[in-house]
């Protein structure tokens, strides 16, 4: 009798487990609630929630649609999106890094923002033109729209500049190197500039920007890597030489893997300058550095520019928003996109994050008339180009970014970084990019 | 009357249900069934899925409907082992790095574990507390353990450089860059794994009867002789399992390098698991990544089979 009872109990337990598992697979989702994966824009995910929650509550009050928001760190976001695209089980609305736009568009996982949808958002022309260039593959209707605008700029510590008798930020690359050298003082544990040398994404961005200044595209029109042209080598060498030759960047920076670590070096006064996107402002505030303690200038460029070179000072950076094609709540999801890209919300959210509005009708707010924001907005509007909008963009960032990381590691450990070493590293990266197969 | 009839009809139904009660022979299988179901669901099905993917040209274009990806046949495998290409050369390099990492880590973990287990066999005040303390690294979540070492090995603020400099061992070095990255990986892995070796070997030692040692001592055997003639041979079964398990863990280790170096793992510490991850998720070539995973699985199965064959043969001859 006891045996029978145990058997029945075991079978019942198994049945409960199986039923639970199967029910979990097929449970209908709440029709009134949207799931939204937001990218981490602020100093922390907690700060993001503080900023987003009141706005999403406002959306709920107006539409009756609840929003279940999850803020996801950048390091996890792409894998989460890929998982959702593969399984078909994911959020209804998602933020993504705009450099991934073309790669993710190729998955077909997102709703296309065709003319009809764009009309709902006020039309394509309502958006900042340069931000729209990073919304998907060239020549195709986008599968995401911009949400937060970003561009690179040169942050400089006003106090350290004043102590060194420097009155204006550098405008040319030669001036920049001179200023950086004057501000570098190993005895006082201070260097002219801090870079995130172990961040493959930042490295790839700088390779792209310097490449454009040298008049070179790292990706040709067929989407193949062209990393080893003399000008491409010039561009990468110019970046690595900040550490290996000019020594205005400390060797320790070869270990810095995130922008926030680099920001910390800037805010604690160990670096006088930092070339970063405007999203760094949130981290600076969070670190206790007041807005008036630093200035912002456009990234210096070579003067004169090499033949064919462009005065590109940033890639078109930022975050986009997309709607999953598998979402059964497409209409509600598009209403959320409409809400978040409205002029009112663009002012509020970008003001809180220190990012730039992506719609032109939000720029009348005085917040975006500050000198720093005007500088970033000017760079984004006039001096920024989109990263290669190709399906293999992420592979481009990985291969060239890792090559530059290894070059910084060489420099940091006292090994020479000759032109031949740069060419060899880029040739290896080019072979990996072109020979990765599969697409 | 109706109630009586109702009761009357109940009895045969209960009798029918009793007839469906599983036989005693079927009970173990029924009890195993849920575990088997979840084993299939959690391990076997994904493994078969991965195997299938390895024959597909699976990239972002087919990610959503991966069963419709073009058939690649053995192309992904050929590509993975084409050592003249950058991808194949990188796989070979990462494979060699992983083999070295595994062998060194297992050897050091076993040696440290054996040393500590031997020392702690003798009773002394505080032995229990010391044993518990030695197990702390293994009890820590791998993320925590690796983060601790990441902070300690940081050149700017880490204590390792400072401590080594204070000891006069060396000046400031980079431990998370270049060739030193490999040493950092080994140190972190050994620190985390040797307590497990200690635990397994200590448990094994406690199963050796003390009379054997007493008899050997009476016969005049020294400490070294007792260790080589009694401890090591009697711990052989435990050591065999331990070495195999540690090898499999370290060869597959993804967490430690990923946490120590983020996504920018230096070449010297680029283990094969990281390489597979990069091929799959950073370059979006899931077919190639699956082929590499399958090759890794086959290699580990072969090593395991060979190891078990050799060790069981030795045991038979012993």
Task: Write structural notes for this entry.
The complex is a heterodimer of chains A (439) and B (318). With 439 residues, chain A is of the alpha/beta class. Chain A has helices spanning 2-26, 45-63, 74-87, 101-105, 115-120, 129-132, 158-163, 173-183, 200-213, 230-244, 259-267, 280-286, 330-340, 343-353, 371-382, 393-412, 419-434; strands spanning 33-39, 66-72, 93-97, 145-150, 152-157, 191-194, 271-277, 294-297, 314-315, 317-323, 384-385. Helix content of chain A is 47%, strand content 13%. Chain A has a five-stranded mixed β-sheet with strand order 2-1-3-10-4. Chain A has a four-stranded mixed β-sheet with strand order 6-7-5-8. A two-stranded parallel ribbon of chain A has the order 9-11. In chain A, helix 2 (45-63) links the parallel strand 1 (33-39) and strand 2. Chain B is 73% helix and 0% strand. Chain B has helices at residues 2-19, 26-53, 75-80, 86-119, 127-134, 136-139, 142-153, 159-167, 180-206, 210-218, 223-234, 236-251, 255-261, 272-282, 286-317. In chain B, helix 12 packs antiparallel against helix 15. The radius of gyration of chain B is 27 Å and the shape is globular. At the A-B interface, helix 1, helix 3, helix 16 and helix 17 of A face helix 2, helix 3, helix 4, helix 14 and helix 15 of B.
Quaternary state, please? heterodimer
User: SS-based structural class of chain B?
Assistant: mainly alpha
Order of helices and strands of chain B: HHHHHHHHHHHHHHH
Rg of chain B, nearest Å: 27 Å
The biggest sheet of chain B amounts to:
none
Measured between the Cα atoms of the first and last residue of chain B, the distance is 79 Å
Strand order of the largest sheet of chain A: 2-1-3-10-4
- How far apart, in Å, are the first and last alpha carbons of chain A? 63 Å
Strand content of chain B: under 5%
Number of helices of chain B: 15
Number of strands of chain A: 11
> Of all protein chain pairs, which has the greatest interface, and how many residues does each chain bring to it?
A-B, 54 and 50 residues
N-to-C series of helices and strands of chain A:
HEHEHEHHHEEHHEHHHEHEEEHHHEHH
Mean pLDDT figure of chain A: 90
User: What's the helical proportion of residues of chain A?
Assistant: 40-55%
Q: Biggest β-sheet of chain A: count, sense, barrel?
A: 5 strands, mixed
Number of helices of chain A: 17
Query: Could you say which overall geometry of chain A the principal axes of the C-alpha atoms support?
Result: globular
Q: What is the helical fraction of chain B, as a range of percent? A: over 70%
């Amino acid at each position: 009798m006891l045996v029978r009872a145990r058997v029945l109990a075991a079978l019942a337990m198994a049945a409960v487990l199986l039923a639970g598992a199967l029910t979990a697979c097929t449970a209908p989702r709440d029709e009134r609630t949207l799931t939204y994966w937001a990218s981490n824009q602020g100093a922390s995910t907690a700060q993001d929630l503080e900023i987003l929650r009141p706005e999403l509550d406002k959306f709920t009050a107006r539409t009756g649609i609840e929003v279940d928001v999850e803020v996801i760190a950048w390091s996890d976001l792409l894998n989460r999106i890929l998982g959702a695209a593969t399984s078909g089980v994911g959020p209804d609305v998602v933020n993504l890094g705009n450099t991934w736009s073309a790669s993710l568009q190729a998955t077909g996982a997102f709703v296309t923002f065709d003319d009809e949808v764009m009309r709902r958002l006020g039309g394509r022309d309502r958006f900042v033109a340069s931000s729209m260039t990073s919304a998907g593959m060239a020549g195709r209707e986008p599968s995401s729209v911009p949400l937060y605008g970003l561009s690179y700029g040169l942050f400089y510590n006003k106090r350290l500049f004043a102590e060194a008798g420097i009155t204006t930020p550098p405008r040319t690359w030669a001036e920049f190197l001179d200023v950086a050298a004057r501000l570098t003082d190993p005895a006082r544990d201070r260097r002219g500039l801090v870079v995130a040398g172990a961040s493959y994404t930042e490295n790839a961005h700088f390779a792209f920007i310097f490449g454009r200044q040298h008049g070179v595209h790292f990706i040709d029109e067929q989407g193949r890597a062209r990393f080893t042209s003399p000008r491409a080598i010039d561009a990468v060498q110019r970046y690595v030489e900040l550490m290996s030759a000019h020594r205005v960047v400390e060797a320790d920076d070869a270990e810095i893997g995130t922008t926030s670590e680099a920001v910390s070096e800037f805010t604690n006064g160990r670096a006088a300058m930092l070339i970063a996107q405007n999203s760094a402002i949130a981290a600076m505030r969070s670190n206790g550095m007041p807005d008036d303690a630093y200035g912002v200038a456009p990234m210096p460029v070579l003067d004169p520019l090499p033949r064919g070179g462009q005065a590109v000072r940033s890639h078109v950076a930022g975050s986009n928003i997309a709607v999953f094609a598998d979402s059964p709540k497409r209409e509600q999801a598009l209403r959320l996109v409409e809400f978040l890209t409205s002029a009112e919300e663009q002012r509020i959210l970008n003001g809180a994050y220190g990012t730039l509005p992506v719609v032109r009708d939000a720029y009348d707010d005085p917040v975006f008339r500050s000198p720093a924001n005007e500088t970033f907005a000017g760079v984004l509007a006039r001096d920024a180009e989109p990263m290669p909008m190709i399906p293999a963009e992420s592979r481009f960032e990985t291969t060239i970014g890792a090559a530059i990381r290894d070059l910084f590691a060489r420099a940091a450990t006292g090994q020479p970084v000759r032109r031949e070493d740069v060419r060899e590293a880029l040739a290896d990266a080019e072979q990996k990019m072109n020979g990765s197969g599969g697409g | 009357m109706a109630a009586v009839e109702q009761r009357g009809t109940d009895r045969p139904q209960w009798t029918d249900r009793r007839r469906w009660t599983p036989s005693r022979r079927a009970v173990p299988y029924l009890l195993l069934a849920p575990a088997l179901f979840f084993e299939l669901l959690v391990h076997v099905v994904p493994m078969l899925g991965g195997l299938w993917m390895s024959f597909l040209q699976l990239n972002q274009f087919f990610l959503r409907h991966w069963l419709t990806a073009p058939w690649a046949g053995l192309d992904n495998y050929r590509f993975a082992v084409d050592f003249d290409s950058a991808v194949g050369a990188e796989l070979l390099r990462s494979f060699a790095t992983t083999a070295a990492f595994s062998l060194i880590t297992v050897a050091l973990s076993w040696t440290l574990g054996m040393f500590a287990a031997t020392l702690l066999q003798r009773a002394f005040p505080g032995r229990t507390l010391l044993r518990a303390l030695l197990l702390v690294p293994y009890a820590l979540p791998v993320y925590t353990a690796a983060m601790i070492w990441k902070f300690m090995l940081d050149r700017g603020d880490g204590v390792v450089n400072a401590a080594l400099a204070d000891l006069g061992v060396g000046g400031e070095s980079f431990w998370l860059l270049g060739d030193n990255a490999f040493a950092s990986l080994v140190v972190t892995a050994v620190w985390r794994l040797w307590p497990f070796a200690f635990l397994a070997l200590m448990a094994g030692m406690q199963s050796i009867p003390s009379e054997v040692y007493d008899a050997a001592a009476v016969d005049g055997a020294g400490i070294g002789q007792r260790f080589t003639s009694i401890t090591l041979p009697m711990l052989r079964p435990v050591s065999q399992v331990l070495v195999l398990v540690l090898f499999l863990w370290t060869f597959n280790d993804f967490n430690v390098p990923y946490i120590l170096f983020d996504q920018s793992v230096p070449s010297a510490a680029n283990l094969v698991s990281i390489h597979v991850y990069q091929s799959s998720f950073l370059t979006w070539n899931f077919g190639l990544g699956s082929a590499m995973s399958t090759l890794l699985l086959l290699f580990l199965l072969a090593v395991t089979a060979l190891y078990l064959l050799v060790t069981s043969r030795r045991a038979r001859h012993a």
